[in-house]
Design brief:
Low-confidence stretches: none
Helix content: 25-40%
Shape: globular
Mean pLDDT: 78
Oligomer: single chain
Radius of gyration: 13 Å
């Protein structure tokens, strides 16, 4: 399964996808079984700069559950460091969802819903 992830701060829309990417690369399981890549994508109409998007190709060994846990851990670490709130948007096959909390169960359920469609 291939998915795309984008992370932005809720206050000002700053792109922090590279921070989650670094977290994924530091996680041996994610690095080995999800093959994270950071893509620079031109922004939409009337927007400046470049948008960073994480592309993951998940193998059977790195499930939606594993990804949900990694994202939740990253978000929790950011929260304890008094960082801005983050919205994580995940896309698969043109369908997407956004998560604003750090509940691994919620992330997993939404990833499972995408996988089932």
């Amino acid at each position: 399964m291939q998915i795309l992830i984008r992370c932005v701060t809720e206050e000002d829309g700053d792109d922090v996808s590279s921070e989650l990417f670094d977290w994924l690369v530091d996680d041996a399981n994610a690095r080995k079984h999800a093959a994270p890549q950071l893509l620079d994508v031109p922004p939409g109409t009337n927007k400046l700069g470049v948008v960073a998007i994480i592309q993951l190709v998940l193998s059977g060994a790195f499930s939606a559950t594993s990804l949900g846990v990694v994202i939740a851990q990253w978000r929790e670490q950011r929260r304890t460091s008094a960082a801005a709130k983050i919205t994580v948007t995940v896309e698969k096959d043109g369908k997407q969802f956004a998560v604003t909390g750090s509940d691994a169960g919620e992330i997993q359920r939404k990833l499972d819903e995408l996988d089932a469609t």
